[in-house]
Every structure is written in structure tokens, then in C-alpha cells.
């Protein structure tokens, strides 16, 4: 049996015993608790109730003796009231006891109490007659006998309850002793079983452990002899531990053998790596010199690329300026073409408009000259108006004379006549002015007619021919502008192509310069890395020497084991 099973079995049995002990203890404690509950809830309350009844009845009896000694009705009433209160309390206690235990004895007490109350009522009636002698005879005779019977019934009830209490207490004591014996027996059995199992398990564990210890000490004393094994026959964990130790020794023996072979291989590999490192060191030195030369050449190439880039930038600037001037020339030619077209169109439109105006003006002017003959009629009309004004003036003068003759009745008419006379004079003056203006207008119209004829002749002979020449000049000017526009457009396109080509060259040169710069930086970085590689190779060489020493030490340590 394994140690685990032994421990599990032992502790399981102990747990079963402890569980049984607990169950039994709980069962017996429940019984004790029930007994205690009976004592606390029934026995003690009944004893308290009986003792209280005994006290209250004795007190009630003392009230009777006090009552027969009183001579005043008020005192008797007060005492009887107290006796009634006490009687009520006694009845409640009897009922309370019956709620605990409604046996024969409490019925006897109740019956004797009723008899006693009957004699009590008789005693009170006699006492109220203030006949102390007869009252004394009653209280010492019939009432006394009833009281003693009641007291005997109470004593019998008290005795019964005391016997029940003693019996219950005795049962509790017997149960406690019985439970104590059982628990003691179980605890003793559990302790003895635990001791026996502890001795058994200790012996079954320590004996193979001592054997294992002795075998391990022998193995240690023999040093690195891995051909030894531990011979221990045990079917528990100690036997498994011995088997595991033997397996561990076998594994170590295999590892030592493999390490021994691996150390030889490591030595050969270290020597090979050392030779390769020497060759690598020589190649790295040669590569370092080559990279330094390459770095110097790249730096020179980068400088040349920078110069080419600067020259290309100047050419690009000039090309851009040339393209910009060509663009400006194209814009100027475009404006010239627009102005030429505008001039041509304006001249043509002006010629057409001038001809139309000339024809209209000529017709209108001839018609106006014919109509100007009507101005001479204005003089005739003016003379007629002057004559009408003179006649009106005479009429106004006559009206004024007639109004003066009429006196007050003709004052208003005189005013009107005066206003008419003034109006006639104003008309005369205005007509005179019209005649003067008419003379001047007529003179101006004659001059205008003469000048209009002169203008018409000038337009026919000079202006019309000038408009025709202007249209021809505008057409020729437009053709010249179109030629110059085509020439400038071709020049601008060529300049743009040249600018684009130069930009491509500049971009390519810049990329070459950047690439050369990066190549120079990369070459420098490679040179620095090669230096680090040289340092690492030296460090590896150093570590290889240390590895050789460690390999020798490992080989010496492995040789200590016997496999």
C-alpha cells in the first residue's frame, strides 16, 4: 500500500470516528437540551407559580385577620378591595398553572380554593357586623379548617412538582454520565487508533527511507560511479522515489556520454571556426581598403554632380525667363490681333453707320431746308398779332373810360380793363421780340443750309474714301498680327519644351547627386560596420579561446564520471 493510501485510510477512519462522535454528541446534547427545556419551560415556571399561589393565599389569609380587627367601614372597604385584587391574582395563577399542567392536584387546589372563598364570604359578613368574638370563632373554626385543607392541597401540589423536578434532574444527570462515558470511550478509541496508525505509517515510511539514505550515501562515497543503482523493494512512494533516482542516474550517465562526444565535436568546430575567422579577418581588411577608395570616388562624383546641378539650375532659370518672355509676347500679339480686329470691325461699322447717317441727314436736311421757308410766315403772323394787340389796347382804354363813368359800379370792370391793357402791351412787346428772333433764326437757317451743303460735299469727296482706306489698313494689320502670333506661339512651345527638358536634366542630376551622397554615406557606414566586424571577429576569437578552455575543463569534469 502506498503512503498516500495509508494516510488516506488512517485519516478517513479518524474522520469517521470523529464524525460519529460528533453525531452522538449532538444527539445526546439534544436530549440534554430537551431536559433543560422541560426544566426551564415547565418545572421551574410551575414551581414559581405554586410558590406565588402559596404566598398570595397566605397573604389573603392575613387580610382576613386584619379585617376582623377593623371597626371603620371605610377601612373595611379598602381592605376588601385589596382582597378582591389578591383573589383575582390567585385565580390568574391557578389558570396559569393549569396551562402548564392540568393534572388532578391543581383541580383539587381549585376546589379547595372555591370552598375557602365560600367560608371567606361568610367571615366577611360576620366581620362587618363588628362582632369580633363571633368573627374570631368563625375564623378559628370553619374558615381555619378550609384554609388548612387548601394549604394541604398546595403542599401536595408542591411536593409533586418537587418530585418531578428531582426526577427530571436525575434523568439529566444519568444522561450526562452516559454521554460522558460514550464520548470518553470514542475519544480514547480514536486516540489509540491514531497512535497505532502513526506508529505503523512512521515505521512503513522511515524504514525504506533509511535504506534509500544508506544507498545514496554509498553512491556519494563512490564519487562519480554512475554504474551503481539503488536496490530497494517497496511498493509505496519510497520505492517509486528509488526507481526515479535510478532512472535519474541512468539519464545522467547518458547525458555524460553524450556530453563527452559533444565536447570532442565542439573542439573540432572551434578550431575550424578559428581558421575561418582568420580568413575572414584578412578579407575584411581588403574590403575595408576597397571601400575607402570607393568612398573617396563617390565623394568626388557627388561634388561633380553638385556643380552640374548648379549649372543646370542657371540654365533652367534662363529657360524659364525665355519662356516667360515668349508667353508675354504671345499675350501682346493676342492683344494686337484683338485691337486689329476691333479696328477693322470699328472702321467697317463706322463706314456703314456714316453712310447711313449721311443718307438720312441728307434727306432730312433737304426736307428741313424746304420747311425753313415757313419761317418767313412768322413775320406775317407777328404783324397780325401786333395789330390785334393795338386793337385790344384801344378796347381796354375805352373800357377804362366807361368804367370811370360808371363810378363805384365800374371799379371791378376798370381793373379788368387795366389788366387787359397791360396784357395787350405785353403781347406787343413779346411779338416785337419774336420778330427780332425770327430775323436771326432766318439768317441762321440760311447759313446752316449753306454749311450743310458744304459738309455733304466734304463727306462725299473725303470722309467716305478715308473709311475705305481704314478698313483696308485694319485687314492688313490683322494679317500681320496673325503671322506674329503664330511665330511667337512656335517660339513659346519651343521654350516650354526646352524648359521641361532642362527640368528633367536637373531632376536627374539631383537624383544622381542624392544617390551618390547616399552611396557615400552608405559606404562610410559600411566602413564603420567593417571596423565593428573586425572588432567582433577579434572578440569571437577571444571567446573561442575561452570556449576551448571551457571545453577542456568540461572534458576533465566529465572524465571524473564512470560510465
Write the layout of secondary structure elements.
Blueprint: H1 3-69, H2 73-100, H3 104-128, H4 132-140, H5 142-221, H6 237-371, H7 376-406, H8 411-558
Instruction: State the separation between the terminal residues, measured CA to CA.
Output: 35 Å
Work out the count of structural domains: 2
Biggest sheet features: none
Instruction: Please bin the fraction of helical residues.
Output: over 70%
Rg from Cα: 79 Å
The H-and-E topology, N to C, reads as: HHHHHHHH
CATH topology of the largest domain: Helix Hairpins
Shape, principal axes of CA atoms: flat
Instruction: Identify the CATH architecture of the largest domain.
Output: Orthogonal Bundle
Instruction: Classify the beta-strand content into a percent band.
Output: under 5%
Structural class: mainly alpha
Mean of residue pLDDT?
Answer: 75
**Low-confidence spans: pLDDT under 50, at least 5 residues?**
none
Question: What is the level 1 CATH name of the largest domain?
Answer: Mainly Alpha
What's the total number of strands? Answer: 0
- Total of DSSP H or I helical runs spanning 4+ residues: 8
Amino acid at each position: 500500500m502506498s503512503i498516500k493510501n495509508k494516510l488516506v485510510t488512517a485519516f478517513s477512519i479518524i474522520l469517521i470516528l470523529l464524525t460519529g462522535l460528533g453525531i452522538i454528541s449532538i444527539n445526546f446534547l439534544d436530549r440534554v437540551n430537551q431536559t433543560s427545556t422541560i426544566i426551564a419551560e415547565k418545572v421551574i415556571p410551575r414551581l414559581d407559580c405554586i410558590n406565588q399561589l402559596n404566598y398570595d393565599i397566605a397573604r389573603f389569609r392575613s387580610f382576613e385577620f386584619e379585617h376582623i380587627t377593623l371597626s371603620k367601614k371605610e377601612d373595611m372597604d379598602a381592605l376588601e378591595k385589596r382582597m378582591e385584587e389578591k383573589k383575582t391574582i390567585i385565580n390568574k395563577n391557578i389558570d396559569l398553572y393549569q396551562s402548564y399542567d392540568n393534572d388532578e392536584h391543581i383541580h383539587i387546589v381549585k376546589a379547595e380554593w372555591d370552598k375557602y372563598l365560600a367560608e371567606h364570604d361568610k367571615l366577611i359578613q360576620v366581620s362587618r357586623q363588628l362582632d369580633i368574638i363571633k368573627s374570631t370563632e368563625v375564623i378559628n373554626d370553619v374558615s381555619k379548617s378550609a384554609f388548612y385543607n387548601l394549604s394541604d392541597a398546595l403542599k401536595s401540589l408542591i411536593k409533586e412538582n418537587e418530585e418531578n423536578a428531582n426526577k427530571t434532574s436525575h434523568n439529566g444527570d444519568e444522561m450526562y454520565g452516559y454521554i460522558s462515558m460514550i464520548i470518553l470511550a470514542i475519544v480514547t478509541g480514536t486516540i489509540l487508533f491514531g497512535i497505532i496508525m502513526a506508529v505503523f505509517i512512521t515505521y512503513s515510511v522511515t524504514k525504506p527511507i533509511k535504506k534509500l539514505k544508506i544507498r545514496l550515501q554509498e553512491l556519494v562515497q563512490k564519487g562519480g560511479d554512475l554504474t551503481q543503482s539503488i536496490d530497494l523493494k517497496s511498493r509505496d512512494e519510497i520505492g517509486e522515489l528509488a526507481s526515479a533516482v535510478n532512472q535519474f542516474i541512468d539519464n545522467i550517465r547518458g547525458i555524460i556520454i553524450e556530453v563527452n562526444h559533444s565536447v570532442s565535436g565542439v573542439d573540432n568546430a572551434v578550431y575550424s571556426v578559428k581558421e575561418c575567422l582568420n580568413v575572414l579577418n584578412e578579407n575584411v581588411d581588403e574590403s575595408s581598403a576597397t571601400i575607402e577608395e570607393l568612398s573617396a570616388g563617390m565623394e568626388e562624383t557627388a561634388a561633380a554632380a553638385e556643380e552640374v546641378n548648379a549649372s543646370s539650375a542657371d540654365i533652367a532659370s534662363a529657360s524659364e525667363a525665355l519662356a516667360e518672355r515668349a508667353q508675354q509676347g504671345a499675350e501682346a500679339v493676342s492683344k494686337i490681333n484683338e485691337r486689329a480686329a476691333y479696328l477693322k470691325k470699328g472702321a467697317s461699322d463706322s463706314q456703314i453707320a456714316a453712310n447711313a447717317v449721311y443718307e438720312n441727314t441728307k434727306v432730312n436736311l433737304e426736307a428741313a431746308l424746304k420747311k425753313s421757308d415757313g419761317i418767313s410766315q412768322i413775320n406775317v403772323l407777328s404783324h397780325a398779332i401786333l395789330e390785334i394787340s393795338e386793337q385790344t389796347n384801344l378796347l381796354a382804354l375805352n373800357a377804362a373810360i366807361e368804367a370811370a363813368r360808371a363810378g363805384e359800379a365800374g371799379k371791378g370792370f376798370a381793373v379788368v380793363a387795366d389788366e387787359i391793357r397791360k396784357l395787350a402791351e405785353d403781347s406787343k412787346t413779346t411779338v416785337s421780340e419774336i420778330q427780332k428772333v425770327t430775323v436771326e433764326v432766318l439768317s441762321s437757317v440760311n447759313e446752316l443750309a449753306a454749311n450743310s451743303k458744304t459738309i455733304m460735299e466734304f463727306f462725299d469727296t473725303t470722309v467716305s474714301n478715308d473709311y475705305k482706306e481704314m478698313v483696308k489698313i485694319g485687314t492688313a494689320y490683322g494679317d500681320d498680327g496673325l503671322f506674329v502670333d503664330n511665330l511667337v506661339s512656335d517660339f513659346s512651345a519651343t521654350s516650354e519644351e526646352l524648359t521641361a527638358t532642362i527640368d528633367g536634366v536637373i531632376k536627374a542630376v539631383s537624383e544622381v547627386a542624392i544617390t551618390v551622397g547616399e552611396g557615400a554615406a552608405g559606404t562610410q557606414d559600411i566602413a564603420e560596420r567593417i571596423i565593428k566586424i573586425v572588432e567582433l571577429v577579434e572578440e569571437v576569437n577571444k571567446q573561442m579561446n575561452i570556449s576551448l578552455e571551457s571545453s577542456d575543463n568540461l572534458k576533465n569534469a566529465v572524465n571524473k564520471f564512470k560510465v
